Structures are given as C-alpha cells and as structure tokens.
C-alpha cells in the first residue's frame, strides 16, 4: 500500500501515521487504498418552488429530508464507488424555515467509515437570492451501507485523515456510532 500503510493486530485495526505522507488512515482493515474525504464531497443546490411548499410558502420538511438523503447518498457513492442504501438518518431539527424562492445548498462530507458503512454529515443552508442572506437551516448525520451487485454489504475504502478538523469529525462520528449501537441494544 506504499505511503498509506496500515497495521493490524489481533485486536483489530490500529490507526497509524506514516511519516513520509503525514496522514493517518482510518477504517476497518481492507486491502483497499484509502481515500480522502475531500474527494467524495458533494455540493447540491436547488431553487425551492411552490410545488415544494405548503400554502404559507414554507418548504416541506420532507422536501429538505429528501435532498439531505440525495446529497448524503451521492457522497457515500463517490467514496465507495458502488450502490449504497440509507441505514439511518439521525434526528433532524429545523433551526429556521426555508421559503419558496430560496436557493437551498446542501454540503455533504464523509466523517467516518467502517467495513461496509459510512457516516456522512450534510449541512443545509437557505439563501435569499435577492438579498444574499444565507441561513443555516439544519444539519444531519446519515449512515449508508455499500452494496455489491447481489445487494449484499460490500467493503469500502478506508478514510485518509489529514487535518485536525477531520480528526475531530472522526472522533465525534465514533461517539455517535457508539450511541446508535447502544440505542439499538436497548
């Protein structure tokens, strides 16, 4: 694997720093080459129309949720280079409304990868194109599972972590994953 070497003990994967490349590869052990989060980022913008809204002109939450899943799913596909399915989307709290005429921009980036699953963070902003005012409306964390041609879970490439921000996102994603798993067990 060249400058992207990983070490594995009997207790599972261990994150290692390669002094030649000054980056760390995180994820479950595979024989795949690691990928950078920036290579899978997705920016999706869409003008909100009357068909997206209720009679008061507020965009339906379901419309925003669908866009979140679209942007997040495409980010996961770009990393895994295969089909993915949505396994979970954490709770979504709408901080402010989105109105007809707003340009909604979603930014999706990969925070964490496991053997077959990936956590993607999607940040949503609404822009009034007439005034230029931009409002952060919400964020969501979604988990996707990569699938092979037979619709079975498929291994995904590890994630190359280079910045303090990426390390922080990874650590926070690990905490969310632990919480998700604890909630499933009771």
Protein traits:
186 residues, alpha+beta, Thiol Ester Dehydrase, Chain A, five-stranded antiparallel sheet, four-stranded mixed sheet, 2 helices, 22% helix, elongated
Detailed description of the structure:
By secondary structure, this protein is an alpha+beta fold. It has one domain: Thiol Ester Dehydrase, Chain A (Roll). It is 22% helix and 34% strand. A five-stranded antiparallel sheet has the order 6-8-9-10-7. Strands 3-4-11-5 form a four-stranded mixed sheet, covered by helices on one side. A two-stranded antiparallel sheet has the order 1-2. It is elongated.
What gyration radius follows from the Cα positions, in whole Å? 18 Å
CATH architecture: Roll
Number of helices: 2
Distance between the termini: 40 Å
Helical/strand content category:
alpha+beta
Shape: elongated
Unreliable stretches (pLDDT < 50, length at least 5) are: 1-23
By CATH, the topology is Thiol Ester Dehydrase, Chain A
In CATH terms, the superfamily is: Hotdog Thioesterase
Total domain modules = 1
Order of helical and strand elements: EEEEEEHEEEEEH
């Amino acid at each position: 694997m060249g400058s992207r070497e990983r070490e594995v003990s009997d207790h599972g994967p261990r994150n290692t720093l390669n002094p030649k490349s000054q980056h760390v590869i995180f994820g479950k052990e595979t024989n795949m080459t690691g990928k950078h989060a920036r290579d899978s980022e997705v920016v999706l913008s869409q003008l909100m129309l009357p068909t997206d809204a209720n009679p008061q002109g507020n965009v339906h939450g379901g419309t925003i949720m669908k866009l979140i899943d679209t942007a997040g799913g495409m980010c996961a596909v770009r990393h895994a280079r295969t089909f993915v399915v949505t396994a979970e989307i954490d709770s979504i709290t709408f901080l402010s409304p989105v109105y007809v005429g707003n340009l909604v921009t979603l930014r999706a980036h990969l925070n964490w990868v496991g053997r077959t699953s990936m956590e993607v963070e999607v940040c949503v902003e609404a822009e009034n194109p007439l005034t230029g005012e931009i409002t952060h409306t919400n964020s969501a964390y979604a988990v996707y599972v990569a699938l092979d041609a037979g619709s079975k879970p498929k291994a995904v490439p590890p994630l190359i972590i280079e910045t303090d921000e990426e390390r922080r996102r990874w650590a926070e994603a690990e905490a969310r994953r632990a919480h998700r798993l604890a909630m499933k067990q009771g």
